[in-house]
TrEMBL record, chain A:
Keywords: Cell membrane, Lipoprotein, Membrane, Signal. The lineage of its organism: Bacteria, Bacillati, Actinomycetota, Actinomycetes, Micrococcales. Residues 1-19 form the signal peptide. It comes from Intrasporangium oryzae NRRL B-24470. This is ABC transporter substrate-binding protein. Its main location: membrane.
From TrEMBL, chain B:
Its main location: membrane. It is found in: Cell membrane. One of its GO terms (cellular component) is plasma membrane. This is Sugar ABC transporter permease.
Length: 354, 372
């Protein structure tokens, strides 16, 4: 037993030794990258480091939307970028280190996609006052700082519009809501949806169901659960179901298709992004324009007018909206646009808590 | 055992060297197969860490070390506590909850919290111990189930006690008071971040583990039970009592895993608290051969790979998860290498004994024979 421990000791020693050996050549390359960053800053060129949440660029939803904004900024503004994705279950130190790595690699603007980056953005922004930071979906003191843009969305306003659409389209006088995870963020969607439905039809019944409770975030990525929940709502008399459940939403669409009922998408225009065979059940989608927020942040940066503090992307700022793809809401578009105008003018205040 | 033999030293180097080479080759082949830049990946992983990354390596290793010792205590008596993962989460939650109440001033709060966490971890582990001793249920099965139950219980309780700060979407326990937050030790020059103060706790735990397992009656009984349960029973060891004590001790140690994170970094227990530490500990204990110093090196190696892989996405455009392949292959390779080396060792020993037997009197090698 004991000689084995010596063995293990040597493994580790050898590994660390190897690391030391190779240090010479790589330290050279790291210093050149530092030089590159200063010359980039002199050219007033934006170098972006974007840190996605778990799922990354390919999640077809939230992170993907941020990537769209980034790609647009690359095409329009000529920015360069480096990307990284959060590893599930990592330590806070690893999250911070990722952001610091961007700074080391010469990033002038660092974006954390999702509230899981809140603390890390706050800490790294403090340590690097010359770099600009943005966080999506967090406006807490954790991430606040003089060089931090907190980009949040008025999800309740967009949800109000699709709630009104659901109520106007419902024949059974009952509509449903499927929330991914019962966080305050998703409750904003629910609150807006209920308010919108009641505004369009005061006697409407709204049934809500959540797929998981935090800190269990599986509800955002479990189509089977989404399908079961939606089936229950359809059987309970609902004929339109709105989901704010990320990846679980595909299950909601499947259930709608099987029941011959309607569903409402979220975040992206899902009549364009969902699998083709279920697109015809999508009445509309509540679009949360993360891409607009990301693009705005970078555009302002390129003009030297960096956004700081909490910026709320509401209907007025074009941060949320309802989708018209498929033409299913064309007949009620006038009514929805009327609500939209009333929200923008402040005539209607949408609640954020159900 | 204490005598140094060049042959043994050579064999001791051979096993890990073999494992590292195998890990290097296998990972390179996988990277090549997927068309990833092999050279850049190794350059990134094997580059010299910056001072702040040294701090992260030490901090990561501190947590891994505690986890691996918790696992190793069980391993030494053939008790597979797969439940360290659940035990540390239950304990970290209980500790964070207690510390957040700020019932006691600064350092007293820290010490009491550590005790609370040990009790919580020990109690959670005692369920598996009870099931094994009284109902004959394999601790492997029960601890795996208890991990899942721990997830549910902690989630449910966290929802009950969570405090919300405006504008935030995360859910956490009440933050511990500032007077109880441990700022850290400035051990590494040139680094802005600091080494966890509770590195001292890990050193203390390692020393205590070395002393208790190696130098006490209890440790002897524990090892004896691990080697041969029947022989232990015959020599008067009460095995059921040993099972309960060891399992609870393992759970109590698991309770310490989250403490450096709680006091040195997160300051609360919430949705972003580091996960999966208990499972990492199993691998590290295996790599470190359950030895207090071996585990320390294994934990450092693991943490080194973790920290160095963070830059992979940014510098080489390769997912950081590559490091899981490297770690997995090292584990596989090292387990196989230890076994091969052990066999080679036995063969060489036999050859030597045979040689000596044919050369000198037949009673000479008996001392060596007892050692093998």
């Amino acid at each position: 037993m004991r000689h084995a421990t010596k063995v293990a000791a040597v493994v580790a020693a050898a590994a660390l030794g190897l690391a030391a050996c190779s240090s010479n050549d790589t330290s050279g390359s790291s210093s050149t990258s530092a030089g590159g960053s200063s010359s980039a800053a002199a050219g007033k060129k934006i170098v972006v480091g974007i840190a996605y949440g778990v799922g990354g660029r390919g999640d077809q939803s939230f992170n993907a939307s941020a990537a769209v904004g980034l790609d647009k900024a690359k095409a329009d503004l000529g920015i360069t970028y480096k990307e990284a994705t959060q590893v599930n279950g990592e330590s806070e130190a690893a999250t911070e280190e990722r952001l610091q790595q961007f700074v080391d690699a010469g990033a002038t603007h660092v974006i954390g996609v999702g509230f899981a980056y809140a603390k890390a953005i706050g800490a790294v922004a403090k340590a690097n006052p010359e770099v600009h930071f943005a966080i999506i979906d967090d406006a807490s003191a954790d991430s606040a700082g003089p060089n931090v843009a907190q980009l949040t969305f008025a999800e309740e306003q967009g949800s109000f519009l699709v709630g009104a659409a659901a109520a106007l389209k419902s024949k059974t006088n009952t509509v449903g809501f499927v929330g991914g995870v019962a966080t305050d963020l998703i409750k904003k969607f629910e609150a807006g949806y209920i308010a919108g439905a009641k505004a369009a039809n005061p006697s409407i019944v709204v049934k809500s169901q959540y797929l998981s409770q935090p800190p269990d975030f599986s509800g955002f990525n479990d189509p089977a659960k989404g399908k079961t929940a939606a089936e229950g709502l359809y059987q309970g008399g609902a004929d339109v179901v709105y989901h704010a459940a990320g990846g679980s939403g595909s299950g909601v669409f499947t259930a709608a298709k099987a029941a011959g009922k309607l569903a409402i998408g979220v975040d992206s225009d899902q009549a364009l992004t969902a699998t083709p065979d279920v697109r015809d059940v999508i009445l509309t989608s509540m679009i949360k324009k993360v891409d607009v927020a990301v693009y705005d942040f970078l555009k302002s940066g390129s003009e030297g007018k960096d956004i700081t503090g909490n910026k709320v992307y509401d209907l007025k700022a074009g941060g949320v909206d309802y989708a018209t793809t498929g033409g299913k809401v064309d007949d009620i578009k006038a009514k929805l646009d009327d609500y939209k105008a009333k929200i923008i003018s402040g005539q209607i205040t949408v609640p954020t808590k159900p | 055992m204490s005598t140094f033999s060049p042959r043994k030293a050579l064999l001791a180097i051979a096993a890990p060297a073999l494992a590292l080479i195998v890990a290097f080759v296998v990972t390179s082949v996988i990277l090549l197969a997927f068309g990833d830049p092999v050279v850049e990946v190794w350059q990134t992983i094997l580059s010299a860490p910056k001072p702040r990354q040294f701090v992260q390596i030490v901090n990561g290793a501190t947590v891994y070390y505690l986890s691996a010792v918790a696992v190793a205590v069980g391993f030494r008596m053939n008790l597979f506590n797969i439940g360290v993962d659940g035990q540390y989460r239950v304990a970290a939650f209980a500790g964070a909850l207690f510390a957040g109440q700020a019932w006691f001033p600064g350092p007293v709060n820290v010490i009491l919290t550590i005790i609370v966490a040990m009790i919580a971890g020990g109690l959670w582990a005692s369920i598996a111990a009870y099931l094994k001793v009284k109902r004959g249920i394999s601790e492997v099965i029960s601890t795996i189930m208890l991990n899942a139950i721990a997830t549910g219980v902690v989630q449910w309780l966290l929802l009950k006690v969570a405090v919300k700060q405006p504008g935030s979407n995360t859910i956490t326990t009440k933050p511990i008071p500032e007077s109880s937050q441990l700022d850290g030790l400035s051990l590494i020059p040139g680094a802005a971040n600091k080494v966890y103060t509770l590195l001292l706790l890990a050193i203390l735990v390692g020393s205590a583990y070395w002393f208790i397992i190696g130098k006490t009656r209890f440790g002897f009984d524990l090892r004896a039970t691990g080697r041969s349960e029947t022989a232990a029973v015959a020599s008067g060891v009460k095995v059921p009592r040993m099972v309960v004590t060891t399992m609870v001790a393992s759970g109590a140690l698991a309770g310490l895993i989250g403490m450096p994170l709680l006091f040195g970094q997160d300051h609360n227990y919430g949705t972003t608290f580091q996960a999966g530490l208990g499972f990492a500990g199993i691998g590290i204990a295996l790599l470190g051969r359950n030895h207090p110093v071996g585990i320390a090196f294994a934990a450092l190696l693991w943490s080194f790979l973790d920290v160095q892989s963070n830059a992979l996405q940014i510098r080489a455009g390769v997912a950081s998860e590559v490091v899981f392949i490297i770690q997995g292959v090292i584990l596989f390779a090292v387990v196989i290498a230890y076994e091969l080396i052990r066999r080679a060792d036995v063969r060489l020993e036999q050859q030597r004994v045979a040689r000596e037997l044919s050369a000198v009197s037949p009673d000479a090698p008996s001392v060596e024979g007892a050692r093998a």
